[in-house]
Automatic annotation (TrEMBL):
Keywords: CBS domain, Membrane, Repeat, Transmembrane, Transmembrane helix. The chain crosses the membrane at residues 12-33. It comes from Gongylonema pulchrum. It comes from the Eukaryota. This is CBS domain-containing protein.
Length: 206
């Protein structure tokens, strides 16, 4: 039989056991923190940190005729931004009018006389018009990533709170480039040593 532990031995046992638990917790916590380093980085920085030194932004009034590929849309009647005109919108409109009125040529030619507001009405009628998604300069980059994923958009306007003006357009490319600039200074997460297939990214089966 084991002899009963005296007071000193029992106290020492508790201390050693507590230190072991603390060590295990620190090892697990360190791994957790290391794996979450990129999300922590995004939480620590604001959208304002990505603002370019020079911003030139083209804004369309919805009453203007169509004549460019991409732009935020300004409603002069409401005096506010109402959406973004994207390549996806162009594709949807072209697809709809390609065979309109029984003539492909007439359908396409009709687009030349359209206003942007007409396009928005068409998209709204078809259920393709998305609400204007934007973010503030003081919001974190993590919030921006969440919104890009939630709204399924590739461009997110950063709107100033005081003036309501769009400071710049935040994109996936700009976010990744900003993270890349600091990657060498950040701890390397364990998942960076895995392949896309091991991480479940992409389609690997028929």
């Amino acid at each position: 039989m084991r002899p009963p532990l005296d007071g000193l031995t029992a106290e020492l046992y508790k201390v050693v056991f507590g230190l072991l638990l603390l060590l295990l917790f620190l090892l697990f916590f360190d791994k957790f923190v290391q794996d979450a380093v990129y999300s922590s980085f995004m939480r620590a920085h604001k959208c304002y940190d990505l603002i370019p030194t020079s911003t030139k932004l083209v804004v369309f009034d919805t009453e203007l005729a169509v004549g460019a590929k991409l732009s935020p849309l300004w409603d002069s009647k409401k005096q506010e931004f109402v959406g973004m005109l994207t390549i996806t919108d162009f594709i949807q409109i072209l697809h709809k009018y390609y065979e309109k009125n029984g003539s492909k040529n007439e359908g396409i030619k009709g687009l030349e006389e359209h206003k942007i507001a007409t396009w928005r009405e068409e998209l709204q009628h078809d259920g393709h018009l998305k609400p204007f998604a934007f973010i503030r300069p003081t919001d974190s980059l993590y919030s921006a990533v969440q919104m890009l994923c939630k709204e399924k958009v590739h461009r997110l306007p950063v709107v100033e709170e005081c003036s309501g003006n769009i400071a710049f357009i935040l994109t996936h490319k700009r976010l990744i480039k900003f993270l890349y600039l600091y990657m060498m200074d950040l701890p390397r997460p364990a998942f960076m040593n895995k392949t896309p297939r091991e991480l479940g990214i992409g389609t690997w089966e028929n």
